[in-house]
Amino acid sequence: MIPFAGELASLLVAVLWTGTSISFSEASIRVGSIHVNITRMLFAFTYLSLTVLIMGFSVSLSAMQIFYLAVSGFIGLVFGDTFLFKAYQHVGARIGMLVMSLAPPISAFFAFLFLNENLSILGLLGIAVTIAGIAIVILQKEEKPTSKYKISKIGIFYAFLGAVGQGVGLIFAKLAFNIGEINGFVATFYRIMVAIIIFYPIYAFSTKNVNPFRAYHSDKKALGFTFLGSIIGPYLGITFSMIAISHTKVGIASTIMASVPILMLPFSKYYYKEKLSWKSILGAVLAVGGIALLFLE
User: 145 Cβ partners below 8 Å, 6+ apart?
Assistant: First the structure.
């Protein structure tokens, strides 16, 4: 067993989600978030199906394991992601991501209630410091003067539901792992499959378009960004998140995975040419310090 396997997997997830957030952001600007959302799932399901088939992973799980993974996929990928996208439409990424940082304490709270996972004082301090660092970075980031976003109660509520979806989704996935060993790719396969089964009819009804790839007909670059993002996000990112929670406590894993805004700082500086303030640096230091405390927990 690799020391800190769960924590290292969580950190890798944060890195992967940093890349996928940029890819999907670029694609969404070009063709719209709803097309990107369903297309990324279809791509990821294809990758996962091929991986499971080629590697010969067994998809034979108990009925309860499949049930927990199905519920996890619905709550996390359909419910949570849908409300996260709606939150972005109302309050933008800055406030939406700030409220989403509530996911770690939410998951830790439910893990305490249903999984009997207890965190030490050092672990709780690590969560608090990490969230504080993330909050400092996101709160100080100003929107463009022409921004249409403003703080609204409905937007905050949507973001909170997104955080609840992410936090609770991990709890149900953890319940499946507690029953017996599950391959990470197989767990993600079931989660994505259920998400598609539920989300695709909603997509087809809301867009009057049963073929999401038609939206990419005039913008091949958007398709490229979606293709790349679906590999490093729903495929590898979610898979390693399943591996992470199978090797460490849910509260710790979700907190480390919530460090995406910090990891995006270099991309903001060199890719988007943004100037980084001292608050951004301070927030990054605090977040890294909080993650270090979690490693010592």
Answer: none
pLDDT 10s digits, 223-278 = 999 999 899 988 998 889 889 988 888 878 878 887 877 787 777 777 767 677 77
Chain segment 232-245, per-residue pLDDT in tens: 988 998 889 889 98
Cβ-contact 19, 229 below 8 angstroms: yes
Joined together, the tokens standing for residue 262 give 């910090």
| DSSP label at residue 77 | I
110, with CB counted inside 10 A (0-12, 13-18, 19+), is buried
DSSP at 208: S
Q: Which two tokens stand for residue 176?
A: 């499946």
**φ, ψ at 211 (rounded to 5°):** -115, 100
The position carrying tokens 């996962």 is: 48
Whole-angstrom distance, CA of residue 109 vs CA of residue 23: 32
